[in-house]
């Protein structure tokens, strides 16, 4: 099975395919019942086998679609999100988050820096050899103060970026590790940079699982100036 192709399918496609196979399961059940009533046991056996196969595929596709909600494939260096910053008042910022798929989100943050964290899932060697790629999911965006004393007392901002559900891979691996025996490790990775007015930052994730943040040239110059502007 080409796991890479399966994991690249949008969740909606996987759920639609699951619904199709569920419908086929119901059709096979109706035909199976007719064969049993007519005494055609051999034909009924084949229909029972098809029914089980369609049901298994429906469960596999549906479970994969729900469990992979919010996860993305991890390539050599995968673009994760871009951040544009605009100052509102001292240590108060308006941020625009832009994802590679074109979606955006507006948030406000308190602090001197922004910090992005992600959850990375890696598989054991047999799954890797079978072509199952690592996965990641953005977890949260938070503000960070340069002064440790201020960090302990000043208002903090934490914004949830995850899309986890009851069937999330992270929750399943923690609560039912026997269901996902091929999961090697799940860990967090984070990166932060100073905030400057009109700053633009690009965040990507290396295949090693390291989250990398880069400012553009103009932003890097503002960060390097004494006043940050």
Break the fold down into its secondary structure elements and pairings.
Layout lengths: L2 H6 L2 H27 L3 H27 L4 E2 L3 E13 L2 E7 L5 E7 L2 E11 L1 H5 L5 E10 L3 H6 L4 E3 L8 H7 L7 E12 L5 E7 L4 E5 L1 H8 L5
Antiparallel strand pairs: 1-6, 2-3, 2-9, 3-4, 5-6, 5-8, 6-7, 9-10
How is this structure best described in words?
- The protein folds into two domains: 3-67; 73-224, no CATH class.
- With 229 residues, it is of the alpha+beta class.
- The protein is 38% helix and 34% strand.
- It contains seven helices and ten strands.
- Helix 2 (11-37) packs antiparallel against helix 3.
Q: Describe the sheet with the most strands.
A: 5 strands, antiparallel
Q: What is the domain total for the residues?
A: 2
Give the SSE order as H and E letters: HHHEEEEEHEHEHEEEH
Computed Rg? 24 Å
Provide the low-confidence segments as ranges: none
Relative helix content: 25-40%
Strand content: 25-35%
Q: What is the mean predicted local confidence, pLDDT?
A: 80
Would you tell me the structural class of the helices and strands? alpha+beta
What's the total count of β strands? 10
Number of helices: 7
* Anisotropy-based shape: elongated
Rounded to the nearest angstrom, the distance between the terminal CA atoms is 53 Å
């Amino acid at each position: 099975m080409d796991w890479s192709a399966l994991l690249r399918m949008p969740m909606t496609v996987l759920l639609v395919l699951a619904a199709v196979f569920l419908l086929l399961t119901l059709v096979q059940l109706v035909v199976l019942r007719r064969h049993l009533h007519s005494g055609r046991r051999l034909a009924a056996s084949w229909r029972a086998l098809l029914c089980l196969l369609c049901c298994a595929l429906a469960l596999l596709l549906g479970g994969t679609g729900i469990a992979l909600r919010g996860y993305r494939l991890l390539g050599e260096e995968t673009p994760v999100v871009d951040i544009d910053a605009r100052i509102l008042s001292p240590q108060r910022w308006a941020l625009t988050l832009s994802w590679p798929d074109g979606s955006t989100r507006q948030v406000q943050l308190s602090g001197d820096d922004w910090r992005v964290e992600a959850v990375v899932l890696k598989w054991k060697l047999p799954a890797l050899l079978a072509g199952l790629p690592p996965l990641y999911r953005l977890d949260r965006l938070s503000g960070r103060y340069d002064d440790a004393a201020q960090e302990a007392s000043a208002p903090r901002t934490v914004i949830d970026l995850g899309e986890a559900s009851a069937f999330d891979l992270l929750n399943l691996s923690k609560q039912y590790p026997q269901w996902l025996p091929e999961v090697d490790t799940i860990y967090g990775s984070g990166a932060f940079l100073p905030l400057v007015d009109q700053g633009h930052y690009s965040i990507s994730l290396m295949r090693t699982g390291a989250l990398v943040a880069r400012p553009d040239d103009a932003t890097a110059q503002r960060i390097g100036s004494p006043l940050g502007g």
